[in-house]
Design a protein that fits this description.
The chain is mainly alpha-helical and about 130 residues long. The chain contains six helices and no strands. It has helices at about 1-20, 30-45, 50-60, 65-75, 75-80, 85-110. Helix 1 (about 1-20) packs across helix 2 (about 30-45). The longest helix has 29 residues, at about 85-110. The termini are far apart.
């Protein structure tokens, strides 16, 4: 387990170094995750030790949200002062995400020749 945790942290460190050295706008842990994914693809599968360690981390994932919750409570006055921009950003990004998802779904449906036009009309329904 210790070796697997070391591997996970080394991938995160490598991603962080790449992001900082190349001034990429992508978080280092995301690059580290991609490095780990590439390594697992090259290996041809996920080792049992990695599966066991990741399952243990996922079991206790809720503990990782405690610092974020504390940060929200510490900065509650700032959040209150900037509530309108935050709400607008959340609402706008949600609408944007839904719109992009709908466009991608429509494109995929067109690509697979399964569209909404294949739905039976009122007269054809059983």
């Amino acid at each position: 387990m210790l070796g697997t945790l070391t591997l996970l942290l080394l991938c995160q460190l490598a991603g962080e170094l790449i992001a900082r050295l190349l001034h990429l706008p992508v978080p280092g842990p995301v690059l580290g995750m991609l490095l780990m994914f590439g390594g697992l693809l090259l290996r041809g599968g996920v080792p049992t030790a990695v599966q066991d360690t990741s399952a243990g981390l996922l079991r206790h994932l809720s503990l990782l949200f405690v610092p974020a919750g504390v940060g929200v409570m510490v900065h509650a006055t700032r959040l209150e002062a900037e509530a309108l921009p935050i709400v607008v950003a959340l609402f706008g990004s949600t609408l944007f995400g839904v719109a992009v998802t709908a466009k991608v779904m429509a494109a995929l449906l067109r690509r697979t020749d399964v569209g909404l036009e294949d739905e039976p009309t009122e007269g054809e329904r059983p």
